Amino acid sequence: MELNNPLYKNMGAHVINSIFTIDKGIVKVLLIKRTNNPYKNMWALVSGAMYNNELITTAAKREIKEKTNLENINLEFVNVIDDIDRSPLLRMLGFSFIGLVDIEKVNIMKETNKTSDADWFDINKIPNLAYDHNKILNNSIDKLKYLITNSNILKTLYPTGFTIPEIHKVYESILNKELDRRNFRKKILTSGLVKDTNQTINFKGKKPAKLYIFNDNIPDKKLI
Amino acid sequence: MELNNPLYKNMGAHVINSIFTIDKGIVKVLLIKRTNNPYKNMWALVSGAMYNNELITTAAKREIKEKTNLENINLEFVNVIDDIDRSPLLRMLGFSFIGLVDIEKVNIMKETNKTSDADWFDINKIPNLAYDHNKILNNSIDKLKYLITNSNILKTLYPTGFTIPEIHKVYESILNKELDRRNFRKKILTSGLVKDTNQTINFKGKKPAKLYIFNDNIPDKKLI
DNA sequence: CCAAAAGTGTTATGTTTACACCCATGT
DNA sequence: ACATGGGTGTAAACATAACACTTTTGG
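Above: the input entities. Below: the structure tokens describing the complete assembly.
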């Protein structure tokens, strides 16, 4: 390979992360406000350069840590963005990821040396974002819907267990439609997605609810 | 972005194509024999550098044309390969694709300035390949199985139409299992994947078979 | 009229949907 | 005792799987 051929030079890569949470039944995504040009003062997904000694997920996790202080996020790859003129500086390949976090358990850093604000936005009320981030976010929302019906991605939200009514609300929020709670329970329990912990949890004035956890190895099929 | 940071430099991209065909009921993949080091004289998938002024599929089509003379192939993206030490020369990101061609209609160029041979190999009898191509091919075979049950990827093999028994054999070959031909017909016809042309085709000594074509816009679901 | 392959229909089985009642708890 | 939400069962509708006979053609 002729490394000095200009067609091989000036190629870079970066990562773009759509980090979702469920806040009182509303699906929200984490946006940060840029302090630098281009797109100064605009909201953007959590994104940044990938170094040439990193795996793409390593770069994604590092950028998330740098710009929000979030750690230990499980990321799912969404797609490659290969439009040629995404950056005026050099050819920039983009790799898009999804993460899911529990809003109760995280503490977002509001300011960093590259960001002046950070906040959660209802995915149905997204402003104009920097770069091509609106398009990337829409793809990620579709992928999120796919993943909750075909994988155990919610496991990261409930590492120690959950009740069926609890995740029922999450499914309804993300899929944006009602699901009959009796049939939902049956599907979840027969899908192989979850297992019983034989524990229960008490909420005031209500019947105790059974606790389940997501399985690690789940069947390769549509689960819900 | 500090372009002189060595962590941003020396990044390249290339494409790796698994081009499949069905030869008398056997699923085969196109391999080429390398004339240059590394992996001189070993068989490999059809691969090569991506230039910084190309979309990833443009690069894939150009490489296929250069190394095999095949043109007008529809390609489907499979995955990113981001292992760090894939190339000793520089960080090399890989983009893997699937193509499907009709072996009756193509004429493979056996020799080019970078290849000394080209041939179709039964996917169950693949030799040791150059680089990480065995792993890439296995991922592509899985994706091919997914695509024939969830998309109209076979449309490229039958641009002018096909009979149900014809594609029935193709499905059995790719999925590597028997499918009841009566239920197969019903599923195909009710899935929304194909439409009737009201034409028939005659084979010697057999009842005429109806001709169908694949639809362009197909439902987003498991079809077979 | 026979061989070869195309085309069709029915029954049984399994899965999904729709829907209504009982249960355990805190106040 | 009652309000709140958790838990369960059943019948109808639908989809899938198993399976056998009839049709058209060329020789």
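Note for the figure: The first helix of chain B runs from residue 56 to 68.
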